[in-house]
Specification:
With 257 residues, the chain is mainly α. The protein is 54% helix and 5% strand. The longest helix is centred in the middle third of the chain and has 21 residues, at 110-130. 15% of the residues are buried.
Length: 257
């Protein structure tokens, strides 16, 4: 892929890649290049010489919201936003220039500013993709944009603990039970009940990794009056019981300390 001045590229799958001046060059592994730490999070790198100077901003993101796995599964392996794209010119160039200025001047609070602006870049890149025809027709994206199914998805996401049924969700969407069920399955490629369970279990996993809440409390918070029922649902989605996720999180915290 040829990148021009001012372009933005988001590699969503984290695949190995090379950045080359031209296709005939040989890449030098990143760990063999001289790096100058700026802080615990940021560093600068200078390499080569003799040709025209190219400046790149490079970063790594880790999506950790409960909805991240659903969203990332929808995205293509790479999102390429061109500076000449009419919908992206203003925000893309302005944000990238701001980040470049902060990185170069290293002013107080610069790390926080760069981090927040990098978040904006990623969010806006995904929004730009969502607003394209290809993105809008893809699974959950198309469902979110649908005036009926989208309204129901908002309710599920905001109130996962509610005792939802296909009938009650169809009422929210303003449709008959059968029409709603068929349209939802066609757009999402899974049944309403399966999607609701999946959303609840991703939220549960997020709680297990981020908090010290008892598993019983997490189950109750997500609308499960029976802890064994919650355990079975969790294992169906992730293949392991919730306790195993909690133990893994505890081990990671101990290793970090």
């Amino acid at each position: 892929m040829a990148l021009a001045q001012g372009d933005f590229l988001l590699l969503t799958a984290g695949k190995a890649h090379e950045v080359l001046r031209d296709p005939n060059c040989t890449a030098t592994p990143l760990d063999q290049l001289p790096v100058e730490p700026v802080s615990e999070v940021y560093e600068t790198l200078s390499f080569g010489g003799g040709g025209e100077t190219t400046q790149l901003m490079y970063g790594v993101m880790r999506p950790d919201h409960a909805a991240s796995s659903i969203l990332m599964a929808l995205l293509p392996d790479q999102l390429h936003i061109s500076r000449w794209s009419q919908s992206s010119t203003a925000w893309l160039q302005g944000t990238m220039q701001f980040i470049a200025d902060e990185a170069q001047e290293q002013r107080p609070g610069g790390e926080m500013v760069i981090t927040r602006l990098a978040d904006v870049l990623v969010i806006e890149a995904i929004r730009t993709w969502l607003n394209t025809r290809g993105g809008a027709e893809s699974g959950c994206v198309g469902a979110v944009r649908d005036p009926q199914i989208g309204r129901e998805l908002v309710q599920i996401h905001q109130c996962p603990d509610k005792d939802w049924s296909v009938h009650s969700l169809a009422q929210v969407a303003g449709m008959s039970r059968s029409a709603f069920s068929a349209k939802f399955t066609n757009l999402i490629d899974m049944s309403v009940k399966r999607y609701l369970t999946m959303w609840r279990m991703h939220l549960a996993r997020d709680h297990l990794l981020r908090t010290t809440q008892p598993i019983s409390a997490i189950a109750a918070e997500l609308g499960y009056s029976s802890e064994p029922t919650f355990h079975r649902a969790f294992k169906r989605v992730f293949g392991i019981p919730p306790g195993a996720v909690r133990r893994h999180a505890d081990r990671q915290e101990m290793d970090a300390n």
